[in-house]
Amino acid sequence: MRLLAALATLLLVVGFATGARAHAALVSVEPASGSILPSAPKAVELRFNEAVTPGAIRLIDGAGRARDEAHVNAAGETISVAMPPDLPQGTAVVSYRVISQDGHPIAGSVIFSIGAPTATKPPANADSGLNTLIWLARIGLYLGLFVGVGGVFFARWIVGSTVGMGVSRAALIVGLFGATASLGLLGTDLLGLSPAALLTPPPWKIPFVTSAGPALLVAIAAMLAALIALFWAAHARMLAAIAFVGVGASLAMTGHAATAPPEMLTRPAMFLHGLGVAFWIGALAPLAVMVSKSSAATLPVLNRFSSIAMPVVAALALTGLTLAIIQLERLSALVETRYGLILSIKLALVLALLALAALNRFRLTPALAGDHKAAPALRRSILLEGAIALGIFAVVAGWRFTPPPRTIVPETPLAVHIHSDRAMFQVLVSPGKAGMNDFVLQLMTGEATPLRAKEATLTLSLPERGIEPMERSAELGPDGYWHVRKVELPFAGRWHVQIDALVTDFEKITLEDDIEVAPP
Amino acid sequence: MPKRSCLILVAALAASPADAHVTLETKQATVGGSYKAVFAVPHGCAGSPTVKIRVQIPEGVIAVKPMPKAGWNVDVVEGKYASEYDYHGNKLSSGVKEVAWSGGKLSDKNYDEFIMHTVLTDSLKPNTTLYFPVVQECETGVSRWIEIPAEGAGPSHESKSPAPGVKLLPKP
Question: Does the keyword Manganese apply (chain B) (predicted)?
Answer without folding.
Answer: no
